[in-house]
């Protein structure tokens, strides 16, 4: 039999149907508290009760001034996440004087997805090794310990899903008809590591973390001493009236003269409640945990940036890797089961550890689909480094030096095709690297072709290009690519001063820095405006202002720079043009909007796909117009795009704009 400290806290209570009650059954709660207490003892984190009486404490203590606003957990068994987050928020306000708002959704997800369940022999549980956020509770006051191992992001990065139904509503988006369909590890992972639940943006903002914790006996004297020292107490409690069972709340003060504790709960009270020292009719205090310190708010937990889905490429073989945790709750600091790799013969265990403050991941992909011991360093060793200026891509090598790359995305294409009358010759390329693009550009320009469309997009830490050329006469033109923001502005100013006007601009990133590709033509035309490097808010504001002045959007390029999204756009002042423009659309939202506008007599005039944290989004423009034959596609991988290109080309269609972008692992 394994030692007690090798048993996962997740093994009790067992995975079960969804809990509709905000409390846990008394027996399951008692078992869970016993296990967490045993673990605290094994880690030497139980506050010793010395032979001498504690120092005198005030008769009345209140830490209310450090408390964050009241929240409500509603019908989900998330009490321990709320209590832990509230304790963390108070500790930060007390130490740094700054109010923070911690994501309870992330804290709950962390306690579930990061757990590593073991059976009584110490083997990792099968077929699913962790708990699910769909199931309530399965946690206790030891959340203070887990918050020393895993930082949490602000609320805005992973907003709390206010009801069980809100969580269930994600399942159909993932292709899962309902909660009863979740049976495999892959089903559990789909919910836990999708953008609709815990966005990747939350992982790269995991910054609020406890620096120490202790467990103490839940005696009146011990709790008073802890509160008097300026530390809130996270308590497992038993709710005595129906529904009877286990719960977790936060003690924030006491009044010895009245013999009551002040507590913060999240059942909609919106005020501090009182719990009598003895014989309280509603609550019985069963444990006491507290945070001793917190890290600097400028801290970011690098290990969290690694968690989630990756595409790994080794010797041209690309496969999915899912990292669920950075360490084991029960054995912190030790190599552990990090997740799974999906190879042609099935799921392989991935064990390993993080080094160099989380910047270096050493993982071992098991040699086959057979289970391995948690933390076993067997199989293929892969060392990968993450440059935190671009958390979407990582690179490293096998032990023998063979290069390895990891990416959060796979390239997709969105395109607009129009019928070509067969007059002038044209050429198109997609997915070519910078060197190939320059060589092709030079060759076609020498043959009398002029560039009519160019799109740069990020792939890994580099860039690729889509372009269309037409062999036709026209005004003088200039084209540039690979320009930094400052270089683009300088070229823009110079060409504009010489009578050139922007025809198209595309933003993208190389090594985490914004770059631009653009085409200018020296010709007359209506008044025009162009912007680049706009944030979401700046783009919307500029769009509103220019539209009000009679400008019509002609093109827009959305592009990702690290975890940020930027926009470059071109407007012309035109009268009598009815148009519709949207941005920030998910794949499902884009298709819905597309169908509605086409049915209302609009035709697509421009589309730009871009990566927004872990998923693809779309910015698009429609004109109200009749006639003309056109086709549009989006979400195509390279092979599907080539097939579509070939089929439409044979029917007399050519691409007008082609947008490359990265898409994540789950549709939205």
TrEMBL record:
Gene3D superfamilies per record: Cysteine proteinases
A Pfam family hit: BTRD1
PROSITE patterns registered for this protein in UniProt: THIOL_PROTEASE_CYS
Coiled-coil portions: none
Superkingdom of this protein's organism: Bacteria
Positions of region (Disordered): 1-23
Protein name, per record: Peptidase C1A papain C-terminal domain-containing protein
